[in-house]
Amino acid sequence: MTHLRCRLAALALVCLLSQNLLSQNACAQSLWHTDLGEARREAERLKRPILCHFGAEWCAPCQKMERTVFTQPAVIDQLRASAVCLKIDVDQHPELAQRFGVERFPTDVFIEPSGQKLMESTGFHPPDEYMALVVRASRRYSDILASRQTKPAAPVVTSPEVGGDSSQLVKSAPSMLMLEGYCPVVLQKSRQWIKGNSQIFTEYKGQQFFFTSPEARQEFMQNPDYFVPQFLGCDPVLLFTADRAVAGTIEWGAFYDNRLYLFTTEENRRNFKTSPDKYIRTRVVLDVHQIESTFR
């Protein structure tokens, strides 16, 4: 009789655990949208970012996240409170992966309801790290919404359109000079710091660049992201550790994977060099108005 009661108790415990697991799985599944349009409408209503999680059944890290991250109650609660979640199987929706430029899996892309990218992160994240990522994206979107409501209208200036003559004018807001006027093309190609000509310039993402020749400017415009400092010249270590967009300086510049990064201190540059992938795995999309003003 005692053995029978023990067996019945054990069976009841197994049933209870199974029910809890099924309940957690059901709760996790109800969190995820499968249609981008539906997710956008929900995000607009709630004023939240959209988390687009790209994965595949054949992707081992993706399946590990499914088992060990997305089933955690704390992760589910954080996702439900901070974002509108969209799960995308890249085999079923390759056009979405191509649209967002996703080539590695898993990848998490945080976007505004309009489709503008906020952040992008690749690879497996354990629960605590993943929740921190979600909180960071949510806070960044809230800050952007607040800045748009309070930002005054910028004065309008004119400058020559790149590749055309001075009679062709485009309107643009005042921009910040990057690299202290050194030519980004010469720097990228020969690692030499040579000042550009202030009469040969262009603006890209609200930042101004000088060039040593019209040919260098034209080469820049063919692939600007290859030549500009990453993260709009902000210190990637501060972005990662403190979520602060602070412009680095050419004094503390460093190339990694043939891309230029600028830092605010020698210590940050040294920390970056010890583990660069840690700091660049999460890509933050910035606007120039988000860069903190600094006095040097």
TrEMBL record:
Pfam families: Thioredoxin_7. Keywords: Signal. Residues 20-139 form the Thioredoxin domain. InterPro entries: AGR/TXD, Thioredoxin-like_sf, Thioredoxin_domain. It comes from the Bacteria. Residues 1-28 form the signal peptide. This is Thioredoxin-like. It comes from Planctomicrobium piriforme. The lineage of its organism: Bacteria, Pseudomonadati, Planctomycetota, Planctomycetia, Planctomycetales.
